[in-house]
Amino acid sequence: MVMANPTLLLQSFFFFFFFFFFLLPCLSWSCPEYQKQALLQFKSSILAINSSFHTLDSWNSSSSNCCLWDKVTCSSSSNSNSTSTSSVVIELHLSDLSAPLMPSNLLAPLFFIRSLRVLDISHNFIYGQIPALRLGNLSNLVHLDLSWNSIEGQIPALGFGNLSNLVHLDLSVNSINGQIPALGFGNLSNLVHLDLSRNFIEGQIPALGFGNLSNLVHLDLSVNSINGQIPALGLGNLSNLVHLDLSRNSINGQIPALGLGNLNNLVHLDLSRNSINGQIPALGLGNLSNLVHLDLSRNRFNGSIPLQLFQLKYLQYLDLSSNRLSGELPEEIGNLTKLQRLSLRRNNFANGIPSSISYLRELEELDLDNNSLSMEIPCDIGNLSNLSSLSLGKNKLTGGVPASMQKLNKLNSLYLEGNLLTGEIPFWLFDFKDLQSLLLGGNNLTWNNNMKIVPKCRLFDLSLRSSGLQGDIPEWISTQTDLSYLDLSMNQLHGPFPQWLAEFHFLIYLFLSHNKLSGSLPTALFQSSQLLNILALSHNNFSGELPKNIGDAGSLRFLMLDGNNFSGPIPQSISQISSLELLDLSRNRLSGNIFPVFDPQANLWYADFSSNQFSGEVPTTFPPIINTLALGGNKFSGALPLNLKKLRNLERLELQENNISGELPNSLLQISHLRVLNLRNNSLQGSIPKTLSNLQNLRILDLSSNNLTGEIPIEFVNHLTGMTPNLTLHTSGFYDVITFSFNFFSTEFAVNELIVNWKKVKQGLSSHYIDMYFLLDLSNNQLSSEIPASLGTLKALKMLNLSFNKLFGKIPASLGDLQNVEGLDLSHNKLSGPIPFAFTKLQQLTTLDVSNNKLTGRIPIGGQMNTMADPNFYANNSGLCGFQIRVPCPGDLPPAPKLQERDNKKEPWILLEAVGIGYPVGFLLTIGIIFLAGYFNPSPPSNCRHHHPHRLIRQRI
Questions:
Q1: Nearest Cα residue to 801 out of 791, 813, 793
Q2: What is the mean pLDDT of residues 563-587?
Q3: What SS3 class is residue 718?
Q4: pLDDT in tens, 49-71
Q5: How far, in Å, CA of 613 to CA of 616, rounded?
Q6: Using N-to-C axis directions, what is the helix angle for 899-936 and 949-956, rounded to 10°?
Q7: CA 275/CA 252 separation, integer angstroms
Q8: pLDDT tens-digit readout, 288-318
Q9: What distance lies between CA 652 and its chain's CA centroid?
Q10: What's the angle, vertex CA 600, arms to CA 597 and CA 603, rounded to 5?
């Protein structure tokens, strides 16, 4: 028997393998020439834009079979008129070509390949409109993906009508605008997946636009500008729908209970970040028995959570946060035993956390932050063994940190800030090896300063704000070198700023305000390698000069060093921090007359240098974007600079309590957005410019304690429309508390108040509520004119002070139209005539001073005027009268009758009165005397004869 040659067999195997798998397809299954040419033309169009394009290098004319090219898939197709078998292109996977910007008309050659079933050109840079008519040629298309491009224009009304075989359509992440066509998808009866998310689509969801898509499983319209209500009929017919996402739109109205209630197969429902209101429909959502993911967050839902929601036994994700829900958390919440994430934060839930929450053994994230929950944290919360994130902050929880929490071995984040928790901070919290975020500040918890701890965790976030820390900053914190957020504010820490803390290179947010830290700041804190975004060292005892390298901290956004003892000049390098948005150096001992020059493109919008010792001219070296500039309480002198006008976005300008002189320049009046202008207690002269009326957004104007003369211009009053009601003003917002979010939690820090003379007392007005205050203070000047009647049109005013001037004439009755005024001071002028009776209409009035004038007549009675009863506020007006000052007015008492008439009228009455009273009184007196005489007389001797009682009576009478 002859054995076969192994080498020959192996050669034969490779020949047949090569023939069938490589050579035969090339010989008989090559793609049609016209399809090959179409593909080459598409490539050529890209090369014409960018000759260095190499992604489609395998596409070349020397290759006879385009089915072998990259990103091309073919399928065999038998020709009934021939015995030959050919291939046609059925799939083009052209996503992420790394090509340059391509206009959509470059796709034209592809639309000649009518055999295409899959066309994926996602993640490119295609711009222009959807080529509607040519797309219609691809009638065999099953899968079309144009997502992640820059396609613009509207969805063609009939452009997809011929694609009746389409199953998958993705137009997401483009720039498509306009409305969803009412009938544009009606013919796509085979459609299973439709994604139009992340575009600029507007208008309402068409009531019938999706009605025929009975096979639709996935519908995503999220992140658009869709408005109106959710159509009950249009979506209610999609009985096969599994995934529905309408989040991040402007949808309003209520959820249609019947419409969504028909979607029994729904697994994923996301309606978050809209303006949907009303109550959560009990029946509608209760029917969605297969629901796994439900997100209704960031809407306007109110009322309580319907109990039917807790019957959705498959629910794993439930987010109802940032609504207006209220009531108690029901015990039925424990029925959701498959729940993995539960967020009810930012609502109005009250009372305690139900103990049944401990039944949610699969829960990984629990967020009940920002409610009004009270009572103690359930002691069984430690049974949630899978919990990695627990957020109960900003509630009213009491008691201590439950010991059962020691069992939460997977705990990664614990947020308990801003409650009423008491007791000692447990040191076992630092034994969690996976713990990264620990926020305990803002409670009544106390830190045991005598205990030494060695943390087993590597913290990223730590807050021990207001926790009773004393002495130096704890040394154990030096081991937490990965910290990015550290808040030790509002404690009793003292000593210098630790060098080791200044060298924490991952630190982004540092809050050490309201302590007793001292010494100078280390230069390492401001090295260029630092990532610091927020540095808050306010209200400590730091001293010395600011480090000259402060400008190297290129990531700083918020720098708060106010309320310390820093001295010397401001380092010029601080203007190099282009990212700086808020700078507060107020209430220090800084000096100098040269300010840093900020780049016009800088981001600084808030700067407070008040209450220092700066001198020279008023600085204007700030970027045009600046919104708030506080320079009060310094030693600035000279006239107001003309180039203040370049700070055109200023809304709050404070220059009070300086030595500024000269007249009010017209250039100041070009800052048209000004809402607060405070020039109190300077040496300004001249008259109030009529053109001050250009500042139509003014809400607070304080020119008091200067040397202004002349009249109060009528034009100035007529155009202060910012002090009239029902006016929508340009606003970017003032803040006394700035809130920022970081890693799913938020924190706040305060911004300085606006100090004004409010009702005769210097008072800080919360910057957050400046939009509620309307104040005009022209007091302590030399103004001499009548009070313009047009002041009565400023109906939003809450405080009007014209005292200590030389105003004369009568008080205009129109001031009674100041319906919101709380304080009105017209004292120390030369006003005459009566106090207008119209003042009785001032229902908000709490302080009125008209003393030291020449007023006469009756003080009005009625309304709040009845409570204005302090005589000091009417003093030195010789002609006033009224019950408020205990001076009767003429005509208050009836005229006294003549003496004879009075006697004649009273005589008969007196006689009757004497008779009516005399008889009973006399009778009672007689009986009393008899009784007393009989009681006190001693018994007569035996030889004496007894007096007859009747004789005794006669005798005594």
A1: 791
A2: 96
A3: helix
A4: 888 888 999 999 888 889 999 99
A5: 10
A6: 140
A7: 5
A8: 999 999 999 999 999 999 999 999 999 999 9
A9: 20
A10: 95
